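Narrative of accomplishments. A recurring question from our advisory board has been how the design workflow behaves on a single, concrete structure rather than in aggregate. To address it, we present the structure tokens for one chain from the evaluation set, followed by the sequence designed for it. No filtering or post-editing was applied between the two.
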């Protein structure tokens, strides 16, 4: 009897204990499922976000979304033709028109475009100018390049015409001719011919001939600017192709020292061409060689002929 009672009392407790374990396991299972679901959701969300970032503007492939998706309207592109596009004709404007006008003025003088000059506007005056010199009213790229870029000028003819302009004091003609010289090579070729002429019974380089022939300050400034546009250099006193125009080259007449600075010098032999003379101060002469400056004793050098 006692044993049966004990058994009966024990079974409900064991059942209760077993039931507790089941609920605990069930709770852990639910918690685990919830945790996995949460982390799974976070992973899916992050993964989805990454896909969305990699496909910024791609429409959703979901059927419902796809049915309401409206693609963006393509941007309208304007294919407006630039005002200075070729061919140049009445109504054109811009840099190409101005370059063409400047070329006409350089070749034919300011009288070719007397009212508006190089104003970047292809108007009636421009049409008249083109007709006047026998050019078509519509300028294609080939004609433009011939007028603006042109070919090398006839150096001998330019030198002769510049000499005539200097003698007659024809400033406008002289300026038109100078503008045809595009670089230092053109200048040198013209000057080499020009120096054979005499202005006031004196042979002069092109620089000196022009500046000595036109004495008005504004005219001199315009001439200097023209030489500068060719690429000539000016040190405030003298002109040069790369330093000093008509600069005197110096040559040593005996072994001597050449100083780059008070602490650095080099020994050079007799008959060594040093460079271009800059100035002489006392017993020393400053000269330039490849854009560097040096000193040498004046009594140890002479001009190189």
């Amino acid at each position: 009897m006692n044993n049966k009672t004990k058994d009966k009392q024990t079974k409900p407790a064991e059942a209760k204990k077993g039931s507790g374990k089941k609920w605990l396991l069930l709770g852990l299972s639910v918690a685990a499922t919830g945790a996995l679901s949460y982390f799974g959701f976070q992973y899916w969300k992050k993964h989805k976000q990454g896909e969305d970032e990699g496909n910024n503007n791609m429409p959703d492939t979901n059927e419902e979304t796809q049915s309401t998706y409206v693609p963006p309207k393509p941007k309208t592109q304007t294919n407006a033709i630039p005002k200075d596009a070729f061919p140049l004709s009445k109504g054109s404007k811009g840099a190409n028109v101005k370059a063409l006008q400047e070329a006409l003025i350089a070749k034919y003088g300011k009288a070719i475009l007397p009212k508006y000059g190089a104003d970047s506007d292809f108007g009636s005056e421009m049409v008249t100018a083109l007709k006047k010199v026998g050019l078509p009213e519509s300028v294609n790229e080939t004609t433009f390049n011939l007028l603006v870029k042109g070919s090398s000028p006839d150096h001998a003819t330019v030198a002769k015409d510049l000499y005539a302009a200097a003698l007659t004091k024809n400033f406008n003609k002289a300026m038109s001719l100078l503008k045809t010289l595009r670089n230092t090579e053109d200048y040198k070729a013209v000057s080499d011919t020009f120096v054979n002429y005499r202005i006031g019974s004196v042979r002069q380089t092109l620089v000196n001939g022009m500046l000595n022939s036109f004495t008005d300050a504004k005219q001199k400034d315009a001439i200097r600017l023209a030489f500068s546009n060719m690429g000539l250099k000016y040190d405030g006193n003298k002109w040069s192709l790369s330093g000093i125009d008509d600069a005197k080259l110096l040559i040593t007449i005996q072994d001597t020292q050449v100083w780059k600075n008070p602490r650095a010098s080099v020994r050079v032999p007799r008959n060594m061409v040093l460079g271009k003379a800059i100035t002489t101060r006392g017993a020393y002469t400053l000269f330039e060689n490849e854009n560097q400056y040096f000193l040498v004793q004046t009594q140890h050098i002479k001009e190189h002929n």
